[in-house]
Amino acid sequence: LSLVPSRHDLRERLARVALQLGDTADAVLDLQELAVAALEAGQHDRAVSLLRQILELDPNDVLAQQSLAATLARMGRTDDAVREYLRLAQSLETSGLASASGDRMVDIYE
Predict the structure, then answer these.
(1) CA–CA distance, 75 with 42 (Å, rounded to integer)
(2) What count of Cα atoms within 13 Å lies in the side-chain half-sphere of residue 29?
(3) Model confidence pLDDT, tens digit, residues 5-25
(4) Rounded to 10 degrees, what is the CA torsion of 74, 80, 85, 91?
(5) Which helix (H) or strand (E) is 21 found in, with range?
(6) CB under 8 A, 24+ apart: contacts of 98-103
(7) Which runs of consecutive H residues, i.e. helices, occur in the chain?
């Protein structure tokens, strides 16, 4: 797959297989790669769908929440974007990240 990164169909299959095997973390990683590729290709509807799939598997994925909100905003779906930004704010507050210092945030994501 690393030799043919444009084979998104294979990445989708890998995500499904990972889910069948109970490996949610690998499935999320595959879906994240697909979402990034969709965003880079300007396929916003597909990116939204993939980001929502990620959030079904990991509702606390703040990066997916932020990407979803930003993508919806870019698409002009303001009400949906605001709703997702509010969910993101709630997740950050619940996790304690909203009050974390910049240095602490870097430590968390490293």
Answers:
(1) 10
(2) 7
(3) 567 788 888 888 998 899 999
(4) -130
(5) none
(6) none
(7) 8-20, 24-40, 44-57, 62-74, 78-95, 102-109
Asked if residue 52 lies in contact with residue 67, where contact means CB atoms within 8 angstroms, the answer is no
What is the C-alpha separation between 92 and 36, in angstroms, rounded? Answer: 22
pTM (2 d.p.): 0.78
Of 58, 16, 59, 21, nearest to 34 by C-alpha is: 16
User: Which amino acid, one-letter code, is at 13?
Assistant: R
**pLDDT tens across 33-61, in order?**
999 999 999 999 999 999 999 999 999 89
